[in-house]
# Entry
Amino acid sequence: MAVATAPASDADVLERIRAGKLIETVDQMSSAYLEGMVRILTVSADTELISAPAYYNAGKSAPTLNAFGSATAIIQDELGHAHIAYRLMRDLGIDTEQLIYERAPGKFKYPYAFDVPLGSWVELIVANAFYDRAGFCLLGDVFKSTTFGPWKRALVKVDKEETFHLRHGENWMRKIVQSAEGRDEIQRAVDWMFLLTVEWFGLPDDLKRHSEQLDFGFKGQSNDQLRQTWMSTAVPLAEELGIRVPAHFDPQENSYVLDCPFPAQFDSENKRWLLDEGVIGWDQVLARWRARGPMNDQYVETIQRGKRGLEQLIAQA
Ligand SMILES: [Fe+2]
Ligand SMILES: [Fe+2]
# Structure
């Protein structure tokens, strides 16, 4: 990926950060800082972008016109969040047109969870309660800790909107669990979506590769800490609703612990965890992530074909 030249040294960057100043422009970055920032921005931008077709597919089964309106508002927010992150990358010298419209689907960097289709209104609202909560935890941490000024300022708006998305999920879950059929349907969605969100936070800290994310203050919390932050509100929500999740708070460890094999094999066709097969290695999880899941091609195609269509129209004019 071509990026602009970054003339500063790592020592310059660290000195600036230690003096309590933010990094504002490429010429205040070292190559390692720039590369690391582009990497984390790419994941953020791709995640926001892909959530739009994923939520749209499920939003079409909204129970009322009003509900469809809130789903559409969330999709619009997500496209706005994607725009912010790609726009920041463009300022860092990245060709974002190429990145969005010409990149192969398999090269997109969003969490695997979005590759598994959301097929109903219930799955959409559980995604709001779980996936948007994951986004909120990750971006809330970036907002607090990032040393890149333009991103920090932009995240004020993103943070507020993600809060709306996760509350939307919670409110609908509270409403739907009141009927026995609704509760069963939510339970079925949670059964496959909970662990996919636990997985979302990436490799455990002892296997993690990109240490510059913490050294340069791109984020404040480690993967395992963020996983805990997410579980500290997601698990109580499930408990409040009487929905089973394979995790509980352990007072002795003073943290949330999982009650099932993790990481585990996932059957994406049937949206089912193969927990009977026991714990698998993270190398197997990485292989599944790399191969991407069932919706990857379709979602990226949805985004890229609009531009191709427009270009054809212009060429014919
Ligand atoms: Fe978002
Ligand atoms: Fe969101």
